[in-house]
Design goal:
The chain is of the alpha+beta class. The chain contains 2 helices and 8 strands; from the N terminus they run βαββαβββββ.
Length: 78
């Protein structure tokens, strides 16, 4: 049985970032991604969960079998 409760996408993305340590190359800055940049990724549909784009304040259903960041570049995490 799946006992994992749905989670707001924004919270899920932040939890993935704690494990994966996303990096930025925004402008001249290089280093860890900021929360505001993570939010922009969500708003610009740069993250796809289970084949669907998700709004940053939308609930994510589990199980999650696919996380794609920047789908045009095809960077798949899971």
């Amino acid at each position: 049985m799946n006992d994992i409760k749905p989670m707001i996408f924004w919270d899920y993305l932040k939890s993935i970032n704690q494990v994966c340590k996303f990096q930025t190359r925004e402008g001249k800055r290089v280093g860890p991604v900021s929360n505001s940049e993570l939010k922009r990724w969500c708003m610009n549909k740069a993250v796809i969960i289970n084949g669907e784009t998700v709004a940053f304040d939308e609930l994510v259903d589990f199980p999650i079998f696919s996380v794609v960041i920047f789908p045009k570049n095809k960077i798949t995490l899971l």
